[in-house]
Amino acid sequence: MRYVGRLTLEGSVCGKPQAASSLHTYHVFVRVATSLASKPLSYNLQANCLQYKQGLSEIREECQELVLSDGQVLEIMKRLLTELNRGLSKATHDTADVKCFTTFVQDLPNGTEKGKFLALDLGGTNFRVLIIELGGEHHFDMKSKIYAIPQKIMLGSGKQLFDHIAECLANFMIEHDLSSERLPLGFTFSFPLSQRGLTKGYLVQWTKGFDCSDCINEDVVQMLKDAIARRNDIQLDVVALLNDAVGTLVACAVRSYNCRVGLIVGTGSNACYVEKVENVELFEGDKPKPYMVINTEWGAFGDNGALEIVRTQYDREIDSHSINAGKQLHEKMISGMYMGELVRLVLVKFTKSNLLFGGKGSDMLFERGTFFTKFVSEIESDKRGTFTGCRQVLDELGLSHATDQDCVNVRYVCECVSRRAAHLVSAGVATLINKMGQLSVTVGVDGSVYRFHPYFHDLMVEKISELVTPGIKFDLMLSEDGSGRGAALVAAVACRDR
């Protein structure tokens, strides 16, 4: 940024003040340097500023709808809090978009857990099987393997899905000489569930590209047990059912006693938090323990129109072409399943408006699903003023004719989309932190967007700091081993408390 400051009077670009950490920082000096030797500095600066203004001003104006104002963020927090309370209330739970399901997880690991525990972590196009051996005092040994779920199974029957999972479980146990043992298993199932107990949960709806038949309103633990029984070659005790957000919270709670929020920003987006049991009206059992982990299922926030103040034409197009139109609208503005496609839709519009690539696109650019979310991270990972990652992406999309100005503009679009996602997540996390009222809170985080985007963590820290109640301290902790380890730990706690 200091190069821009030297050329343009105290950090202004073409007369527009720019903060060093601003999303909109652009490096004019790259273009100025190319002809500096042949023309006077003032001439080059004028010419390049004119080009800069022409190339960027319309892009910035068109992207403005992707930039959330402070007022909009505060209004989103207010509306989310209303929906959280509606989800917790017995009178309004059925009509609430943010369901706030009880998880029946009331105890966290204390380091005394011992034994072997299996974990199954299902939440996307891949799932993971783990074996964890706990030795007490937070000692553990873990082995795991990732298995793919073909799309034909994701869109097939529930029986096909759970038979595939059971087959992979059996193969894992044989591979690790565990088939003769009867082991407890923690099952992470990262789709909206209505739980009736720690080992009983009914699927509310599929998300993240799944649409298996004969599963809605069915007990997924029983479906897993039935699939295992059909094989007759392994024996397991399913002792805990949870989702990835709860698994992340539990895994991080081993490292930080103050961990009270579990957050997922990956293929999907969700959060859980620790609530006072007196506020959990749907929990009808004995209440000797003061707290309960609540699975918010905040991906559905906005399904009733609460997010219309910030949804754009691109969000509506994403939704209209999804397999669950009208649902999970909050998730569709944030998660890795949709972020790349959001960027692509913006680039397509700007290309057709002659604002990008000289109005000349490519077949791949105009094809749905070709701009992967990983491209956003790769483009934003370029050092300012360089375009190595951006050009690799554009070349892959058949856009090798892109100019440096196009690269600048493409990065700006990526930044707008990812920054909006980070601010929406931050608004949600700050709402949960403020609701709990704890003076110090650790947020356990997992998910590919948070892990691999170069600035997502920093954007969140900056925004949450602005939004939490003064005096509250927080930190974001990356979950080292994902939600699978959390599933095994919940299973261990369940066995410990028997």
From TrEMBL:
One term of GO molecular function: ATP binding
Catalytic activity: D-glucose + ATP = D-glucose 6-phosphate + ADP + H(+); a D-hexose + ATP = a D-hexose 6-phosphate + ADP + H(+); D-fructose + ATP = D-fructose 6-phosphate + ADP + H(+)
Entry superkingdom: Eukaryota
EC number, as in UniProt: 2.7.1.-
Residue ranges of every copy of the Hexokinase C-terminal domain listed in the record: 260-493
Primary enzyme class: transferase
Cellular component GO terms, alphabetical: cytosol; mitochondrion
Residue span, Hexokinase N-terminal domain: 59-253
Pathway assigned to this chain's UniProt record: Carbohydrate degradation; glycolysis; D-glyceraldehyde 3-phosphate and glycerone phosphate from D-glucose: step 1/4; Carbohydrate metabolism; hexose metabolism
Keywords for the protein's UniProt record, in alphabetical order: ATP-binding, Glycolysis, Kinase, Nucleotide-binding, Transferase
Pfam families the record matches: Hexokinase_1, Hexokinase_2
Keyword Nucleotide-binding belongs to the record: yes
GO biological process: glucose metabolic process; glycolytic process; intracellular glucose homeostasis
PANTHER family: HEXOKINASE (PTHR19443), HEXOKINASE TYPE 1-RELATED (PTHR19443:SF16)
Family: Belongs to the hexokinase family.
Name of the protein in its database record: Phosphotransferase
Organism field: Timema bartmani
Organism classification: Eukaryota, Metazoa, Ecdysozoa, Arthropoda, Hexapoda
